[in-house]
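Hypothesis: this fold can be encoded by more than one sequence.
Test: take the C-alpha cells below, design a sequence, compare later.
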C-alpha cells in the first residue's frame, strides 16, 4: 500500500503546479450487469471542481473504468482546459491498456496475437484518440493509485460509481475547491486516516470467504477453502490469489483476470 507520507508529498507537489487532476473509477453489479462510472476533475489553477457520473444497465467493470476516463478526457477537450493533466486510476486494465497495449493493437488492426478481436475496442479507440489530441497541447500523465487506500479523491469517485451502479440518485458537485472540501470534509488529495477505514478492513478480514481464486502458471483456479488454495500456490513463483465473498465477486474477478491474461497476448 502507498504510504501516507508519499501522498502528503504528492499533495504538496500537486498544489504547487497548475494542473488538472482527475480521479476516475467504475463499478458493476455482475460482469456483465448494472454499472456505474465516475470522474472527479480538479482545476488547481482555476480553483474549481467538477464531478461527473453515469450508469449503464448491461456492462462490465472494465467498461465502466474506461467510460470514466473517456468522459473525463472529453470534458477537458470540450472546455479547452489548459495545464498538465494527471489522471489517477486504480484500474490496472485501463492504465496498462492506454500506456502500452493500445499501440500494439492499433498496429495489428485491433487484433490480438492470436487473431482475436480486442475487447472494448470501441472505447479504446475513443480514449486513444482523445489522449493523442490532448497530448499535443497538454502534458498527460496516467498514474496508478491503490483502490480503497483512503485517498479522498479516489474514495469519492468510488462512492459515486457504486451508487450509480446501484441506481441511487447522486447529487454531482460543480463549484469552488474550498466549498467542495468543506462538503467532503477535507483536502481532496489527503489520505483519510479515519477509524471507519480500519473498521471496514477488519470486518472484511473476518468475513467468511465464498471462495479463493488463484492463478498458477497462467491458469485460473477456484478453491472453496484456504487449505486447498494454499496447497496450490505455496512454493510456486508467479502466482496470484485473492479471497472473494460472493458468487458475483468470484465471477467478476475471474473475468477481470481472464481479460488481463487476454490482453497480454496482444
Amino acid at each position: 500500500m502507498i504510504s501516507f507520507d508519499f501522498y502528503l508529498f504528492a499533495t504538496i507537489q500537486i498544489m504547487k503546479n497548475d494542473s488538472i487532476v482527475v480521479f476516475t473509477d467504475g463499478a458493476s453489479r455482475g460482469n456483465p450487469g448494472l454499472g456505474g462510472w465516475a470522474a472527479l476533475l480538479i482545476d488547481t489553477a482555476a480553483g474549481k471542481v467538477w464531478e461527473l457520473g453515469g450508469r449503464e444497465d448491461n456492462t462490465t467493470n472494465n467498461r465502466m473504468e474506461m467510460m470514466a476516463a473517456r468522459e473525463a478526457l472529453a470534458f477537458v477537450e470540450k472546455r479547452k482546459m489548459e495545464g498538465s493533466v494527471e489522471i489517477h486510476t486504480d484500474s490496472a486494465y485501463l492504465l496498462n491498456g492506454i500506456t502500452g497495449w493500445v499501440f500494439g493493437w492499433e498496429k495489428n488492426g485491433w487484433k490480438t496475437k492470436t487473431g482475436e478481436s480486442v475487447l472494448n475496442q470501441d472505447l479504446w479507440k475513443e480514449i486513444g484518440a482523445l489522449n493523442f489530441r490532448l497530448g499535443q497541447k497538454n502534458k498527460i500523465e496516467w498514474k496508478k493509485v491503490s483502490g480503497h487506500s483512503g485517498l479522498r479523491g479516489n474514495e469519492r469517485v468510488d462512492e459515486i460509481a457504486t451508487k450509480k451502479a446501484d441506481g441511487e440518485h447522486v447529487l454531482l458537485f460543480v463549484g469552488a475547491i474550498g466549498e467542495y472540501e468543506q462538503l467532503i470534509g477535507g483536502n481532496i488529495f489527503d489520505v483519510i486516516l479515519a477509524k471507519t477505514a480500519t473498521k471496514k478492513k477488519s470486518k472484511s478480514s473476518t468475513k467468511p470467504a465464498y471462495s479463493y481464486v488463484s492463478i498458477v502458471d497462467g491458469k485460473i483456479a477456484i478453491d472453496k477453502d484456504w487449505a486447498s488454495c494454499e496447497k496450490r500456490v505455496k512454493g510456486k513463483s508467479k502466482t496470484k490469489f485473492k479471497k472473494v465473498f460472493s458468487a458475483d465477486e468470484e465471477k467478476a474477478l475471474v473475468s477481470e483476470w481472464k481479460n488481463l491474461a487476454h490482453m497480454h497476448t496482444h
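The beta strands are 19-30, 33-43, 48-59, 84-89, 140-144, 174-176, 211-216, 219-223, 239-244. The longest strand covers residues 19-30.
Hypothesis status: open.
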